[in-house]
Design a protein that fits this description.
Blueprint: H1 5-11, E1 19-23, E2 27-29, E3 46-50, E4 81-85, E5 87-90, E6 96-98, E7 101-102, E8 115-120, E9 141-144, H2 152-155, E10 161-166, E11 187-193, E12 197-198, E13 212-213, E14 232-233, E15 236-243, E16 262-264, E17 276-279, H3 282-286
Antiparallel strand pairs: 1-8, 2-3, 3-4, 4-17, 5-6, 5-16, 7-15, 8-15, 9-17, 10-11, 11-15, 12-13, 12-14
The structure holds 2-acetamido-2-deoxy-beta-D-glucopyranose (2 copies).
Organism: Periconia digitata
Domain DUF1996: 32-279
Pfam family, one: DUF1996
């Protein structure tokens, strides 16, 4: 695997606490140690990146992912695991094809596309990244999204799980909460931004979300204050995944009724159920802040 290390180092000098890196695919399989630990197979297919100790259990009482010996992420010391569902194209004849992924801008060479992971203390465009954040603790994990959401209202409790219809590799505007309704010349990017206010106590919670909260008002980007129930501000973790949908842009392949043909591995055709999972390996973050 070859990466553009000079570009990466420019972003991650010792003072800067914005880190952005690509992770190649580790595996595509039906395992979900966060939502359905120990269940083989999990209810739907995921693409997983990160440390190689990933397995069906990831017992929080063990030092997993600390048992990893290597990772698919660009930082060889990041043994965290990050995962999302996989995307399919439904052809007119009713067959499904798994949509391949593309590497993000500047990361050509990442195997099978994988995903780009960000940790930031302030909005992406703020190069100073000066705000104080609390480090994630060993055993920390979280989930964001709702696999059962099928309407705008159901998705509304999540502020920043989006799609970008990409006309070219640099497209970043007009994010939508539903799948793009039109053909996207380059592909579709899914962006998942996790909440940034922690209760300060729990490393996880039954729904894997309750220990975290969005800011009380505004957003992470507008530096909205954390609520009293979740007073501890953390970094914003964000994933970007680019789906190579352009290969399916022939009119003859799209549904005759003009609807969009993409569907998540768990059957969602609306896109409102966009979701992501994160199992943290804190030593990596400490060495980069
Ligand atoms: C996952 O790995 C841990 C640590 O190596 C091990 O104890 C556990 O049995 C594994 N789980 C499965 C389902 O393989
Ligand atoms: C179904 O349609 C897809 C897309 O046009 C095509 O690639 C595939 O071979 C077809 N499969 C069958 C069984 O006809």
């Amino acid at each position: 695997m070859r990466f553009e290390l000079s570009a990466l180092l420019a972003l991650t000098g010792p003072a800067a606490a914005l880190i952005r890196f690509q992770c190649s695919q580790l595996v595509v399989e039906r395992l979900d140690p966060l939502v359905t630990p120990g269940q083989i197979p999990s209810p739907h297919v995921h693409q997983i990146v990160g440390g190689n100790s990933f397995n069906a259990t990831m017992d929080p009482s063990k030092d997993m992912p600390g048992e990893s010996t290597c990772t698919t992420c660009q930082f060889s010391e990041d043994f965290s695991n990050y995962w999302t569902a996989t995307l399919y194209f439904r052809a007119r004849n009713g067959t499904y094809q798994r949509v391949p992924q593309l590497a993000n801008a500047g990361f050509a060479g990442a195997t099978a596309g994988g995903m780009t992971v960000y940790y930031m203390q302030d909005p992406l465009y703020d190069t100073a990244q000066k705000s104080k954040v609390s480090a994630f603790k060993p055993g920390f994990r979280m989930f964001i999204g709702d696999v059962n959401a099928r309407s705008k209202d159901q998705a509304a409790r999540f502020r920043q799980l989006t799609y970008t219809c990409m006309d070219d590799a640099g497209s970043r505007e007009r994010e939508t909460v539903a799948f793009p309704a039109r053909k996207c010349a380059y592909g579709i990017m899914t962006s998942l931004r996790f909440p940034t206010c922690w209760d300060g106590v729990n490393l996880d919670s039954p729904d894997h979300m309750a220990h975290m909260s969005y800011p009380e008002s505004g957003t992470f980007e507008s530096a909205g204050p954390c609520p009293s129930t979740h007073p501890v501000r953390t970094s914003q973790v964000m994933f970007e995944v680019i789906w190579d949908t352009s290969r399916y842009n022939d009119d003859a392949d799209w549904p005759e009724d003009g609807s969009q043909p993409f569907v998540w591995s768990f059957g969602d055709k609306t896109g409102y159920a966009n979701h992501g999972d994160y199992v943290c390996f804190p030593p990596f973050l400490l060495s980069h802040s």
